[in-house]
Amino acid sequence: MTLTCITGGRVVDPDTKRDGIGDVWLENGRIIDAPLNAQRYEHIDATGCVVMAGAIDIHTHVAGANVSAARLLLPERYADIEKPMTEWTGAPFDLFSTGALYAQMGFTLVVEPAVAPTDAVATHAELECIPYVDRATLSVVGNDEILLGMIRDRASNAAIQDYVGWLITTSRGLGAKAINPGGVAALKENVRSFTLDDTIPEYGVSARQISQKLRNALKALGVPHPLHLHTCNLGIPGNIETALKTIDAAEGEPVHLAHLQFYGYGTEGDFGMSSGAAQIAEALAKNKNVTADVGQVMFGPTVTVSSDALLQFTSRNRASPKKFVIRDGDANGGGAVPLVYKSKSKVSALQWAIGLEMFLLVDDPTQIYMTTDHPNGGPFTAYPDLIAQLMDRSVRNAVIDSLPKEAMEVSTLPGISREYTLMDIATMTRSAPAKLLGTMDRGHLKPGAIADIAIYRDSKDRAAMFAKAAWVLKDGDVIVRDGHVLAARYGRTLSLAPEYDAGIKSHIAEVYDRRWGVGPDTFSVPATLLRQTSPFEVVPCRP
Amino acid sequence: MGQASRPLNLSVDTSAAVALITESCNPTLIIDAIDLAGAAAAVNLAKVASMRVDHAAQDHLAPLQELGFLGTMPGEAGLRADMVLWIGATSHFIETDEAARRLLFDQDNLSESKKTPRRHFCIAAPAQSPSENRIKQIPIGDRPLLDTLGLLRARVKAHPTSIETSTQDDIDAVVAELKSAKYGVAVFAAGHLSFLEQTNLMGLIDDLSSETRWTLLPLDQPVGQAELARMTLALTGLITPLAFLGDRARHDAYLYSAEQSIARGETDLVIWLSSSTTAIPPRFLGAPNTIAITAHDTAPSGADTHIRIGIPGVDHPAILEPAELACAVAITPSQTNSAHPPTAADVLYAIAEHATTQPEVAA
Amino acid sequence: MAELILRLKATPDQRLDLKSLTPSRLAGLTVPEIERLPIATTRTQVTVGDVFTVSGALGGGIRFDGGSDRFDFIGAELAGGTIHVDGDVGAYAGRRMLAGALSVSGNAGAHLASAMDGGVITIAGTAGDCLGAPRRGERFGMTGGTVAVQGSIGERTGDRMRRGTIITHETCGAFAASRMMGGTIWAVGGFGDYPGALMRRGTLIAPHVTKMLSTFNDCGVHDLVVLQLMEKHFKDTLGSLAPAPTSGPPKKLSGDTATVGKGELLLIS
Asked: Between C42, C197, C259, which is nearest B25 by CB?
């Protein structure tokens, strides 16, 4: 691949603390040192532009059975409109649009964070159809019969570690996620609310125990990404207590809390809901072991897709329009419940404010990550607007002025003056997520890094600037020019290959045989799926 | 769109099919048995050649689009159901569907903590009711299923009905039993129930779920439907029947229905795609031209042109969704077929490469 | 008033999507511009000029001189003015119609008045299944307006209907008013099997029904003033298409108690 130099742009690269006009050289899909005497090379004139590494979305529901169910459930949001498929209507984008829309915004890696191991084959097949960007997944564990049975039966930590290693390997995840651990299993016993220290009937195991066992297993396996935890009581006023207890329960060990905005709810105020963002920020400042993505709410129609079957079951009667898919799975199951975040709704307005408070009150941009928990809080295509709200107080205030006063009275957002810098944005969306996932050759522009580069035409209108990149390079190839995708190219799916003792398979075989009458490798994801070449690339575990 | 897995050495002549497709005004691709890769390739072909796409058993998914679903998985039902409600003609699956019988009937998998034996009920006309005497018949007389389901729903909520008191007492006794389930599973087959019957069934399950756990377990899903739906949803956002025209797919169960389009004389070319040896159903014959892409050795009856493909999971590795698992798994055949028939995906990508990408412009 | 006339040249060899042929969508276009509008639904491109001889001038009205059961989406989103079809129409005529009048001298296909919101549709012949129903997945069928059909109408009429009126002077097919949430269906020739399945609210009026669900309950005979008001209203707005006046108080049934059960069926004489 040709030697290329991106010249004249403002390079913003947190890993090297670089923020100034300069060149970025690349060759054969990698960033390189400036050659001593280059004569023939391609030239990208980035004068007037901001140059960053490709962005990473660590938590976006773009594929899998629940997303598929959401599409099936909402034909009216697609079938009878003359709009392009790339316009958000509240139903999940098709996969081609998903890749194109991410690429246009300068993203080069997206993580589907909730893959049920039994659905991993189909999900990976879907992910293979997302063009332009690289993909990765997290494997869901924590409500499955095998893990819960092992904890109940006091299996050794080594055995649990082997099981988790086997699960991540066979489902080709880049890490593991627990979704309302224990709560979903409890729903199957007709339990309708479940918190950190409640125990699952039949197993006598609590959410706290499950998370602790999983944390230890991932650490021992050397999985770079810490346990990705969707804790219990999502969306329920007063769940700030659950969030704080979950942070304490991590006992100083690394844990990533998913879509924390949905847990930032106090019970004060006239409508029984208030912002707990300040307490969350305080707890994060004291617990540097904890990272979180926000799960920002953006106004408009959407559909919640979640493997938290307990949450989806209990919120089904709030569906708008009133229809829903809820499925008890062989572990988590999950569902799709459509809803609308209305800017006139006090609750929705406060959710929006709480999310922004979290972004702005957590000082360390390596601890807080930009997500809308797509599509649960809103579509990922809202990121440019969200960036504008973070970087420009006047943009934020214009939204605040349009919202119900009662909601703003129980939030501190109107009084917050902080504005994100470009360096903050690059940290939050590039360098920090790359490290959090263990993809060390991404998220920065140091020589040796993968040449995933986003070049934005600098503008005071941050939303416009980040919506359509001037250029995006993937592995050194230009995939976006002037905000438009070029011919489709397909990337890789990142996965792990942790070491584990395969002896654990005899136990798994026993359970699978009883449950389905099938062997333990039945749900394993093969190296090739829809095409004749493998999409997978292995990211190394920690030694 | 699912990028081409270009066949390396496709030794099959697709030129006749390509010529027919290129000349067709309104080519309609009807899909029966298919693997995931074949389904992705079918969507790709339909897009590049502006085709209609339908599944051979279309419209079974309509209730999911209108109402959604409160369901469970076969493995979960097998482990947890302490009560099974067999609906309508579904009741005979106990005799015909081995997996259903094993999971829900023979092998009482209930865990140690649930000592009560599994209870079985059926709502079926006498002719449809199973011979198993462990299944208790719900007394419905000669009432149609829609009415019976409505009655149960009304009585779950203690709403009045117009039936005689003695019959209502019988219904109330059934309702009391249904409410006593810890994890009730209603077994049904979408193809055997009308839209309104399914709507009332879903409503019944949702009504019962306000207090206890009740879910639905679909059985007897048409072959290839899950695989095709998964890929059309992923690649277009929609399910069949689809029409690709311009830059986007459109879905309309009436306008684009293959069966109805053929009956109305609107389809000039049918492409029957089935990676099996099923005969082309008569309702899909009758278009001026028919291409069959099937696992038959020779052209099946009604086909003008035939391309032989392999059986996924038998002749070549494939991703399929076995009904008893209700999720897609990769299946590697134990032996390879010495004839090496191409896969559906191979053939469809080869056709797509040559089929016209631009709609013909009328003079 | 000036009319734009579209004379059918020959039976079209494919279904046509005619939603662009409404007064508001054609406003400001010249005849050659109208002739160039695409209306194809298959790979073979077809324009208005290929199928119709266009004449006259748009003055708020459009007349189709000749119809076909392949004319889909006639009068879709009609927001005012009139469309008359001298012949048959296909599916989805009057889809999401807002105001104005659509009249058809022949028969209408399926999904007539799909999710219609306002205006008046009159059909001299028969109408197909799913009259006034929603399109797949939509929340509501008809939310307003009036549809009067001289002939019989098909099954699932008024599915998920919320407001508005549907009248047939002959019979209304099976499973009418399924999932109905409001509005009125008057079947002068009676209802077929099982009207009102999963009906929440709304009013059904007919002299007889072939089969009823057990989840409709007899509420006795009522002298309903509202029925007389309705009759007068239809007489005023529909003239000869209004149902003949009823004689004597109707018998009332309410249901479907499988759901909330606040719908009513009035058996008139």
From this structure: C42
